[in-house]
Design brief:
Length: 324
């Protein structure tokens, strides 16, 4: 009887122990599932920002003053007759090339009842006829110009600079010239003349830019756009101006931290900007060449934000990715 009672108590004790151990295993399994679900939930709630990036480049940047004006001959000479009379012959036309002493027009000084020898008006200089007022049969006097001849010394562009910009103009500044007549072609020139006075009415100063004319593509009277290079820096780090972020008086950019390829992070980098021209900004300090920076989607970023790069754009001055 005692043996049966002992066996019964032993069975009960074994069931209790097994129950407690089972509960512990269930609790451990539950905690594991809970921790895993919590980790997954945290991972899912961490925002990942979609961004576009590019790389910093090293190279030159130049500031300029944009002006426009007309191409003129560097020197022009008007041709006059020594006597009054009627134009009896015209030897040239607009655009004709003449040498010095070539005939331009004949003047017949004859009057009714009197016959005189015709007088030949000759070119005073070699060049190109750009204006020709003389017409066959017209009566002229010695004060009337018969032709205007542009000398062959070259072409110039006549420009007018607003008074507030004259401190940026100096002799021999390089210039880049473009024309609608030759799209995609950039001509070179330099400032060769600066007026010593300011027009009190227009508040502008006249300057002249000498322009190279390879292939004789440029003609007098053409309209030209001129960029006068006022400042140039070489071998500087430059970025698109759109990459710059300003908050509470501080300027910075976000650099891609790719130390973990599976979890890209935006790293905030304070920079010192320099000159900014046509959307391109000089960076004086804070960035090195060939660093990957964020140029779109950085508005809401903070230091350490997770990012997903949607597109990598070509660096400044490079051929767009995928272009042939």
């Amino acid at each position: 009887m005692k043996n049966l009672r002992f066996a019964a108590w032993a069975a009960v004790l074994a069931l209790v122990v097994l129950g407690f151990s089972g509960c512990e295993r269930i609790k451990l399994a539950y905690d594991k599932i809970l921790n895993r679900d919590t980790t997954d939930a945290l991972a899912q709630t961490t925002p990942i920002f979609a961004v576009n990036t590019t790389r910093t480049v090293q190279g030159p940047i130049q500031d300029y003053l944009a002006l426009s004006g007309n191409i003129i001959a560097s020197s022009t000479v008007d041709t006059f007759s020594d006597i009054a009379g009627r134009v009896s012959r015209v030897y040239v036309s607009v655009g004709s090339r003449v040498r010095r002493d070539d005939p331009v027009v004949d003047i017949d000084p004859s009057r009714p009842g009197m016959e005189f020898i015709h007088s030949v008006v000759r070119a005073p200089v070699a060049g190109t006829v750009v204006v020709l007022p003389a017409q066959l049969g017209m009566t002229i006097s010695p004060a009337v110009p018969l032709a205007r001849i542009a000398g062959g010394a070259g072409l110039e562009i006549q420009l007018y600079v607003a008074e507030r910009f004259i401190s940026r103009i100096s002799m021999n500044q390089p210039c880049e010239i473009t024309l609608d007549a030759w799209p995609g072609h950039v001509f070179r020139g330099a400032v060769i003349e600066i007026s010593p006075t300011i027009d009190p009415v227009s508040r502008t100063m006249e300057i002249r830019v000498g322009v190279e004319n390879p292939g004789a593509l440029l003609k007098t009277g053409m309209f030209a756009r001129v960029s006068i290079i006022t400042e140039r820096k070489d071998d500087i780090v430059k970025i698109p101006q759109s990459a710059m972020v300003s908050r509470f008086g501080e300027q910075f950019v976000f650099v891609v931290d790719s130390s973990d390829p599976d979890a890209l992070v935006a790293q905030r980098r304070t920079v010192l900007p320099g000159i900014m021209i046509d959307g391109v900004m000089e960076v004086q300090s804070g960035l090195a060449p060939n660093e990957e920076i964020i140029i779109r989607g950085q508005t809401l970023l903070e230091d350490g934000s997770r990012i997903n790069i949607i597109e990598r754009l070509a660096p400044l001055g490079a051929t767009p990715l995928g272009a042939s």
